[in-house]
Design a protein that fits this description.
single chain; two-stranded antiparallel sheet; mainly alpha; 19 helices; 2% strand
Amino acid sequence: MAAVCPISPVRPADSASNARQDCNLDPQSSPVNGLNGVEEEKDQPNRDPRGPSMYIPVSELAGAYLGDNIAAVMGIHPEYLHIFWKTQHQLLRMDGALSLPERHYVAIMAAARHQCIYLVSLHSSCFLQVGGDPRWLEGIQQAPIKLRVLNDLNKFLAHRPWMLAKEHIALLLRPCGGNSWSLAELIHAIVLLTHFHALSSFIMGCGIRTPQSQLSNSRPPSPVESNETLNSAEEAERVVAEMLKLNEEGEEATREEMETRFEKEKIESVMVTANGRITQCFFSPAIYRFLEHPEFGYIDFTRRGEQAPPTFRAHEFTWDCHGYSLMHGLYSEIGQLLDEKFQVSYNLTYHTIATHQGVDTSRLRRAIWNYIQCIYGIRYDDYDYGEVNHLLERSLKVYMKTVTCHPERVTHQLYKDFWRQFKHSEKVHLNFLLLEAKLQAALLYVLRAISSCKT
């Protein structure tokens, strides 16, 4: 399968014939671990000595992907890379309601919300290659009104999806001088927005380097090494011991206890911050021109001293029973691919943690997934949120929340501060879970709004 965008993200002057790249969807290298783990393939030739990631050594990556730094990092886990690229190929290249230039422009708008220069640059090049009007790249005000009216949807999906209501959907679908959206077009745009919001988090969470990185980058530098240290050997053993303990106890909390524990975790998530380990971010001009309301960002779902929005009760609108069915009816090809991608990321395991073999990691994976969706106000009634504090220590929570909600603030120090004994491939798998949990949370909110609008 050809790469989704055959042009180098930072060398738009290259000819298409020279810049065309193939995405290896079935790498011959051995898979390596992610909350899991087997042997890594090392000493790969023909790599940029700096590597595709600022955080992950070249020797830890699976193989060469012809300048595609995202694929080089995701390729640590070929099963996930395969379904990811199938999904993105469907969104950007196959039959769909939006034109090819519109698709890449929506990707630019989405990536700009999280200040992801990698994706803004990449899809600006792709936009031109597929015949997009160069004037649109001068800024959002030069784009057609039909695309500009996606601004509110874009910012809510990126930062505060719980604010979406059926009125936002109805406004976009209302006939308005040729600028209205059909439902098929809107669904295509929604999936593109949520896909690239989540991918921006993955890119920054893994420190993926923008090719030809002489481009300005608004991401903050890593602060001076912290004096906070963890006994890394004990950390992995603690996680394994906690999972064994939870498996052995087998005690079920009452419904009231589980609700209390969810509310406690939701409130405590407000205090999960990076404190002084982040620096102020500044928008680069390459990002700023594609933004309206750049000051709008994530705020905690539960804010101290304020009444929180209603909790999203997942059993009332689940992905499996409601979201998938609605998506399948409106955009069947992508609904199936999204469902498969959620399943692959959630179920991926090689039954190892760091140096420990034969470990059932299902509780850890579920704690990670449910914690991210808890941050967005989503509660699973059948889950005991008391497990979150047993399995996720503070530095891990700080990293997870920063990657998911403020990816532009991720630093190498935050990446190093958690799971110090764990392998890089395990941290990449963690970022898959963050990407997909964030994506699904946004989709649940917006699909619920669409469902309400249709009834």
